[in-house]
């Protein structure tokens, strides 16, 4: 409401007060019985109100003009719940029973709207519609509120007055309306008092219309008092919220101003420095006690001088500050002293790992050389083996045995060389490479850094990370390692790098050439049993919060889990199966807390389901030979079957998802036997008339490599001689067209695979004799191995 409207309302109120004595206001008996009707949709209008009303010029301008031309200037206002109809069409059935007769003052037309001051006169009800289109003219009656002199009415009147008094301090806006009311009416008149109190509230339209429809004074005052109490509660809550907000804002402003004043006072007294000076002093303090190369010291000093003249709000200031933050945080010249104690290192390795005796010996040899020389530096250890054999944990044990900080990150899937050598400072969001971040985190220049999954490095348009690693890992070059972000030379020659991989095939040859390879071939059942008892099972109990007395597992059950559910080379799947046993046991312990559970072999099928691995029966018969193969998951047995389909024509068919190299080995074996059948006491014309089918079972699994050459040749020879080979024997080796047996790789894995299948007699290439003799004694124990340099040696063992 504008100030002009407020002044005019006061003027109208004064006129109304004067007219009560002079009779200028229409007396009740002189109110017209026909009034024009005007709908309003904000809230109902009460007789005690004097308020501005705004309506659309169309379609109500004619109604206002006709009212203005009457002598009484009276109009009826009816509340419409919902949006106003644009065409002015009203449904009489949707209008409320009671409206308000008002007298209009000071009607003004502006911007498509008509505004006037409405002075409430009496309640009004429609008796008949005289016009059903705008302007609406209706016959009306004026319901009378009979006087009620009961004490109860006076009590409600006092309650309303007290409630209004309580509301006024909470919302000063109501004081102006109270002034207008007191100028026109007596507080002793309960009817306008209740209407005025209802008009003060912010209740919804239907609630206010209910008050307007109520003519009985006592009932009306009861309803109004309820609305007024609600209004007081809302106003009080709003006041509390406003006070809380103002208090918080005041506290923040006060704290801000005090801090700003404190800064100025401290600056005037020389007790504090600005942000730039504080940053420079912080960076200089970081460099105290560090030994920087001359080039690095000069570069950092130049950046500090540059920072001192830059504005703190400029982008260049942020870039320079970030650079100095990294450059000064590096541990320049700080070297952690090595603790090279072979006995202690042996204890740590034995504590953390069961089995792997050859790997432990190799690591101890490596540490012994460092102890003899006095320092361990310039070395890159590459741990190669199937998943789950403990490559990462061995790296941690090496760091602990040297008492050096350990930092690990995975390079698997890395395609951006900036991850290795950093981004250039010109790029937004530039950061140093992983090695700079590692040195900052560990705080020394000689940590043990593990690069996991180095065989899974990728390459993309963003560069080749494997090539970027050449400079990083090469002992002859990494003393001058250059990070693109810092653009400073870093000495990484004291860092011990430990890399892990599953295979060597995908590692670039120049990178592999810089590494000292240590193979982890997997575990036999006895080693897995020891690992499960000493490491995996106790760890699973600890994770579940169980005591050893609450849950036990027998050695037979552990061995059954190993053989039937986790026959892989590593122990990760074994750990998962043991975790499954613990979880299922915890469910039972929650149901029966005092139970002591002991897991036996008979319980495994119920807890773990049907075994994933079954005891494989070795295939026997004519044309069937058991070979040995190497995979990235460890060693495996590889049966080969050969049969003659018919003798109608000559042919040779291969199946079993064989790779190109394995197909070539089969072709070589077939050609060799075709040319030399007579020397092996077989029908030399056998293959001239036979269509031979050679199959390697598990056809869904891809197989490749030359090591099945003598196996395929032996199967074909057994078929040609129509004589089954000796049972309980497996072999591996590459064959040539002249029958020579060439060496193959993965001897350790293949021996482990044979022991796992209870095969204790092997045929290996003579050139692999040294590889076999280097195997640990527990792997060679109980094995009978025949070494062959020519296929004649193989045939002699197979067919006597």
TrEMBL record:
Top EC class of this enzyme: hydrolase
Lon proteolytic domain ranges (all copies): 619-800
Pfam families: AAA, Lon_C, Lon_lid, LON_substr_bdg
Recorded superkingdom: Bacteria
Induction of expression: By heat shock.
GO cellular component annotations of the record: cytoplasm
Keyword Isomerase: no
InterPro entries linked to this entry: AAA+_ATPase, ATPase_AAA_core, Lon_bac, Lon_bac/euk-typ, Lon_lid, Lon_proteolytic, Lon_Prtase, Lon_prtase_N
Coiled-coil region: none
Gene Ontology molecular function: any one: serine-type endopeptidase activity
Organism: Halopseudomonas aestusnigri
Function according to Swiss-Prot or TrEMBL: ATP-dependent serine protease that mediates the selective degradation of mutant and abnormal proteins as well as certain short-lived regulatory proteins. Required for cellular homeostasis and for survival from DNA damage and developmental changes induced by stress. Degrades polypeptides processively to yield small peptide fragments that are 5 to 10 amino acids long. Binds to DNA in a double-stranded, site-specific manner.
Subunit structure: Homohexamer. Organized in a ring with a central cavity.
Catalytic reactions on record: Hydrolysis of proteins in presence of ATP
Gene that specifies this protein: lon
Descriptive protein name: Lon protease
Stated family: Belongs to the peptidase S16 family.
Binding site for ATP: 385-392
GO BP terms in the entry: cellular response to heat; protein quality control for misfolded or incompletely synthesized proteins
PROSITE patterns from the UniProt entry: LON_N (PS51787), LON_PROTEOLYTIC (PS51786), LON_SER (PS01046)
């Amino acid at each position: 409401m504008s100030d002009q409207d407020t002044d005019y309302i006061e003027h109208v109120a004064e006129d109304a007060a004067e007219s009560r004595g002079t009779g200028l206001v229409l007396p009740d008996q002189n109110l017209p019985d026909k009034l024009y009707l005007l709908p309003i949709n904000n809230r109902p209008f009460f007789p005690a109100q004097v308020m501005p009303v705004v309506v659309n010029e169309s379609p109500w301008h004619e109604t206002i003009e006709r009212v203005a031309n009457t002598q009484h200037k009276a109009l009826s206002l009816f509340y419409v719940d919902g949006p106003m109809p644009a065409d002015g069409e009203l449904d009489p059935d949707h209008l409320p029973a009671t409206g308000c007769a008002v007298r209009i003052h000071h009607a003004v037309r502006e911007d498509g709207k008509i505004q006037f001051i409405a002075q409430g006169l009496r309640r009004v009800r429609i008796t008949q519609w005289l016009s059903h289109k705008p302007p609406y003219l209706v016959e009306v009656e004026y319901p009378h509120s009979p006087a009620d002199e009961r004490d109860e009415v006076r009590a409600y009147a006092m309650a309303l007055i007290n409630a209004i008094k309580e509301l006024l301090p909470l919302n000063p806006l109501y004081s102006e309306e109270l002034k207008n009311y007191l100028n026109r009416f007596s507080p002793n008149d309960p009817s306008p008092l209740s209407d005025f109190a209802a008009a003060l509230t912010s209740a919804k339209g239907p609630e206010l219309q209910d008050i307007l429809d109520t003519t009985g004074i006592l009932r009306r005052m009861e309803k109004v008092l309820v609305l007024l109490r609600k209004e007081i509660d809302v106003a009080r809550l709003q006041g509390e919220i406003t006070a809380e907000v103002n208090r918080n804002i005041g506290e923040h402003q006060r704290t801000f101003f005090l801090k700003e004043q404190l800064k100025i006072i401290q600056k005037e007294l020389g007790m504090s420095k600005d942000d730039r000076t504080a940053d420079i002093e912080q960076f200089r303090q970081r460099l105290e006690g560090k030994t920087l190369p001359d080039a690095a010291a000069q570069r950092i000093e130049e950046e500090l001088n540059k920072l001192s003249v830059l504005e703190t709000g400029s982008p260049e200031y942020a870039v320079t500050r970030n650079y100095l933050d990294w450059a000064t945080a590096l541990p320049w010249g700080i070297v952690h002293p090595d603790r090279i104690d072979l006995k202690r290192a042996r204890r740590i390795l034995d504590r953390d790992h069961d089995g792997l005796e050859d790997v432990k010996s190799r690591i101890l040899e490596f540490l012994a050389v460092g102890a003899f020389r006095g320092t361990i530096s310039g070395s890159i250890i590459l741990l190669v083996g199937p998943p789950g054999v403990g490559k990462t944990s061995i790296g941690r044990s090496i760091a602990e045995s040297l008492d050096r900080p350990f930092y690990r990150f995975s390079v698997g899937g890395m395609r951006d060389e900036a991850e290795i050598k950093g981004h250039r400072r010109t790029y937004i969001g530039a950061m140093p490479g992983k090695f700079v971040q590692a040195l900052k985190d560990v705080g020394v220049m000689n940590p043990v850094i593990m690069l996991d999954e180095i065989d899974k490095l990728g390459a993309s348009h963003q560069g080749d990370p494997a090539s970027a690693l050449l400079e990083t890992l090469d002992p002859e070059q990494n003393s001058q390692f250059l990070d693109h972000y810092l653009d400073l030379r870093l000495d990484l020659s004291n860092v011990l790098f430990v890399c892990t991989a599953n295979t060597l095939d995908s590692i670039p040859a120049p990178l592999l050439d810089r590494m000292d390879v240590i193979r982890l071939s997997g575990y036999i059942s006895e080693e897995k049993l020891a690992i499960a008892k000493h490491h995996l099972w106790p760890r699973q109990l600890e994770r579940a919060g169980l005591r050893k007395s609450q849950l036990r597992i027998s050695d037979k059950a552990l061995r059954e889990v190993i053989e039937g559910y986790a026959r892989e080379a590593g122990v990760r799947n074994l750990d998962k199966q043991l975790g499954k046993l613990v979880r299922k046991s915890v469910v039972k312990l929650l149901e029966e807390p005092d139970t002591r559970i002991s897991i036996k072999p008979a319980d495994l099928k119920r807890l773990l389901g049907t075994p994933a691995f079954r005891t494989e029966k070795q295939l026997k018969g004519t044309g069937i030979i058991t070979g040995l193969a190497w995979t990235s998951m460890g060693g495996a047995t590889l049966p080969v079957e050969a049969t003659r389909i018919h003798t109608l024509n000559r042919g040779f068919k291969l199946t079993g998802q064989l790779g190109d190299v394995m197909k070539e080995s089969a072709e070589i074996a077939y050609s060799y036997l075709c040319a030399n059948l007579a020397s092996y006491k077989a029908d030399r014309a056998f293959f001239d008339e036979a269509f031979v089918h050679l199959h390697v079972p598990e056809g869904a699994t891809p197989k490749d490599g030359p090591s099945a050459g003598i196996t395929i040749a032996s199967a074909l020879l057994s078929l040609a001689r129509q004589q089954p080979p000796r049972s309980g024997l497996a072999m591996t080796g590459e064959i040539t067209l002249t029958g020579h047996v060439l060496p193959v790789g993965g001897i350790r894995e293949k021996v482990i695979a044979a022991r796992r299948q209870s095969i204790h007699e092997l045929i290996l290439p003579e050139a692999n004799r040294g590889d076999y003799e280097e195997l640990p004694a527990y792997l060679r124990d109980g094995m009978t191995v025949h070494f062959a340099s020519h296929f004649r040696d193989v045939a002699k063992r197979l067919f006597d």
